[in-house]
Amino acid sequence: MPVDVLITRLDPDVPLPGYAHPGDAGADLVTTSDVSIAPGERAMVGTGIAIALPAGYAAFVHPRSGLAHRLGVSIVNTPGTVDAGYRGEIKVVLVNHDLREPAVFARGDRIAQLVLQRVEQARFHEVERLPGSARGDGGYGSTGTASQAGDSAGGR
Ligand SMILES: O=c1ccn([C@H]2C[C@H](O)[C@@H](COP(=O)(O)OP(=O)(O)OP(=O)(O)O)O2)c(=O)[nH]1
Ligand SMILES: [Mg+2]
User: Fold this and answer.
1) Ligand 1 pocket: which residues have CB below 6 Å?
2) Sites in the chain below the pLDDT cut of 70
3) Would the annotation count 147 as a binding residue?
4) Fewer Cβ atoms within 10 A, N terminus or C terminus of the chain?
5) Residue 79 near residue 60, CB atoms below 8 Å
6) pLDDT, position 146
7) Cα separation of 116 and 122, whole Å?
8) Is residue 152 annotated as involved in ligand binding?
9) What is the pLDDT of residue 50?
10) Domains of the chain as residue ranges with CATH
């Protein structure tokens, strides 16, 4: 079931965020400005919208895979987190990972997608010692490469 979200257009000409297909997770966001991002550079763009999420929700600003594949463009802080209490314009920090070509966007181009999720807040309880677990403190590649998956020897 869709969640009702209040929205204001800070730029009256931008479209409301739209889902391309029924059931899509991400609603596309557009840039309100023309921008050219040099190889390796980044640029913050506005989307022209502000929202009021219900308590217990957050919205996450995700990159679009087509832009990643076609242009090498992603979002620096992916996914960007929009807090329920945030009432400002949703902005997107685009980054051009391409080594040679600038990434060029025109006002109205779809540059990111917004994913709504229910989120929990933790109540943190400090303890002297954490309960044990199978993983323990293993991480950062401790399970080895794909071809070694299941090898509990902790190969490289
Ligand atoms: O891609 C993003 C990420 C964040 N925001 C807005 C909504 C979010 O609620 C607010 C703060 O984001 P975040 O907590 O990630 O940034 P911060 O660096 O911790 O700033 P602050 O000190 O304001 O929390 O900025 C965006 O518009 N786009
Ligand atoms: Mg913050």
Assistant:
1) 61, 77, 80-83, 86, 90-92
2) 148-156
3) no
4) N
5) yes
6) 81
7) 19
8) no
9) 98
10) 6-121 (2.70.40.10)
Q: How many CB atoms lie within 10 A of CB 95?
A: 19
Instruction: Establish whether 95 is an annotated binding residue.
Output: no
What pLDDT does 8 receive? Answer: 98
Whether residue 79 is preceded by a cis peptide bond, meaning omega within 30 degrees of 0, is yes
| DSSP character at residue 68 | H
Distance 112 CA to ligand 2 centre (A): 20
Helix (H) or strand (E) holding 6, with range, is strand 6-9
Q: How far apart are CA 127 and CA 132, in angstroms?
A: 13
Atom of ligand 1 nearest to the CA of 90: 27
Ligand 1, residues 83, 111, 119: which to mutate, most atoms within 8 A of Cβ?
A: 83
ipTM score: 0.99
Give the whole-angstrom CA distance, residue 147 versus residue 120: 36
Could you identify the residue written with the tokens 């303890």? 127
Whole-prediction pTM value? 0.93
Q: What is the pLDDT of residues 40-49, one digit of tens each?
A: 999 999 999 9
Q: Please name the residue whose Cα sits nearest to atom 11 of ligand 1.
A: 82
